[in-house]
Design goal:
alpha/beta, Rossmann fold, 6-stranded parallel beta sheet, about 325 residues, about 20% strand, 2 domains, 7-stranded mixed beta sheet
């Protein structure tokens, strides 16, 4: 070996450091896929930080946000897979399905409302080889939301449902909603959107139908437009029940569902295990185990309603 080559090799070794040290210590890259970077994403990042990851040091994020266009998810997921990233974290059913289809080997951790009924996985205990995650079991919660509406809205007869027709979870949830409505002797009218651009029109039609109350579908596209939705309901005095904690800050009347920020913390734990070598298929899909009921008495007053004390006692949070 020539002297110049020896000197170059010694410089690369750097006092005994492995030749491939730079490759071994490169930051792990986590791809984020969703509609918008809402508050639960910050909970996810904070949990990773608590687990020993620091952005810019041993962790990097690649973020792709559909901005209210669920039809963009396949292209956005493909872009993350092509970078590549070490794992994709997908928020919502459309994002999870797109991430799964983008690669058969790239690990995917999802936070969604349902997994088996929507085809993300075939088995919760033994998910697909490269896919696992956490679900809010929203399908089972639709029944409780309708029952809650019946408790807080006197003489409830007609309920409007605002939903995203491009979300596979929507079809599953609506089956439950229609079944429960028949049992409770309620009439259901569904108003569907396919993007954020269609929400204003759907809300106009919903208001014109003059329902006794409204139910918001468990959907991230709708969540991304929560301020517009909640303000419309309040302005037209339509009592509405919402599925996510974040609607509370938009002035939502009643919220019932799993806390998505908590689910993202659990997703971060799975990402940590995967980055350390665990196979996604060996990690069972976790289900939400705790649910929160939030009642906004200020919003109730604006609607001309008195929330029964029995509901207030059961609430995890009552906003005066």
């Amino acid at each position: 070996m020539r002297r110049r080559d020896v000197v170059s090799l010694l410089a690369a070794l750097g006092a005994g450091a492995p030749v491939f040290a730079r490759a071994e210590t490169r930051p792990m890259r986590v791809g984020l896929l969703g509609s918008q970077p809402l508050a639960p994403i910050e909970s996810f990042k904070a949990k990773l930080n608590a687990l020993g990851y620091a952005e810019g040091k041993n962790l990097a994020f690649a973020e792709q946000w559909a901005q209210g266009r669920d039809d963009r998810f396949p292209a956005l997921a493909a872009a993350l897979a092509a970078l590549p990233v070490d794992v994709i974290v997908a928020w919502g059913t459309p994002a999870a399905i797109a991430a799964k289809r983008a690669s058969q080997t790239l690990p995917v951790v999802f936070v969604a409302g349902d997994a088996v009924n929507t085809g993300i996985v075939t088995n919760l205990a033994r998910p697909e080889a490269n896919v696992t995650g956490v679900i809010a079991i929203n399908v089972q919660l639709e029944e409780k939301r309708l029952e809650l509406l019946q408790e807080v809205v006197p003489n409830l007869r007609r309920v409007a449902v605002l939903a995203n027709s491009l979300n596979p979870l929507n079809t599953i949830n609506l089956k439950t909603t229609h079944r429960v409505a028949r049992e409770l002797k309620l009439a259901i009218e569904v108003f569907e959107v396919r993007s954020s651009a269609e929400i204003a029109g759907a809300l106009k039609r919903l208001v014109e139908s003059r329902p006794d109350a409204a139910l918001l579908a468990s959907d991230i596209l709708l969540l991304s437009n929560r301020k517009q939705i909640a303000e419309t309901m309040a302005a037209h005095r339509i009592p509405a029940i919402y599925p996510f904690h974040e609607y509370k800050d938009a002035g939502g009347f009643v919220v019932y569902g799993a806390n998505i920020s908590v689910l993202f913390e659990r997703a971060a734990e799975y990402v940590d295990r995967i980055l350390k070598g665990a196979k996604p298929g060996s990690l069972p899909v976790q289900q939400a185990t705790a649910f929160e009921l939030i009642v906004n008495l200020k919003a109730a007053a604006g609607l001309g309603l008195r929330v029964p004390s029995a509901v207030q006692v059961r609430a995890d949070e009552v906003i005066e």
